[in-house]
Design goal:
Layout: H1 6-11, E1 13-16, E2 19-23, H2 24-30, H3 35-44, E3 54-56, H4 59-67, E4 79-81
Antiparallel strand pairs: 1-2, 2-4, 3-4
Helix pairs in contact: 2-3
């Protein structure tokens, strides 16, 4: 697996609810897995993640990300990692 540069990671960090987060699609790409597989593992192993580690975006937050071209469509949304 290739190392990911700090610059690449920094480009995927957004501030939502005054918390710096990475979208599930970006985190999955870092680990070379599909986002749906990452979400499945979180659901199956919820006890391994702190309660403030994962949250779902509100409709308004999704609209902001759409307007910033951070996501291509609402269908691509999943979880957010803080």
């Amino acid at each position: 697996m290739e190392l990911i540069s700090n610059k690449t990671i920094e480009k995927t960090i957004f501030t939502i609810r005054e918390v710096q987060v990475i979208l599930d699609k970006n985190l999955a790409a870092f680990y070379d897995v599909k986002p749906i597989r990452l979400r499945e593992q979180v659901k199956r192993n919820a006890n391994r993640f702190p309660v403030d580690f994962v949250f779902q975006l509100s409709a308004d937050e999704i609209e902001v990300l759409l307007s910033q071209n951070a996501i291509p469509s609402k269908q691509k949304m999943g979880l957010v990692w803080s």
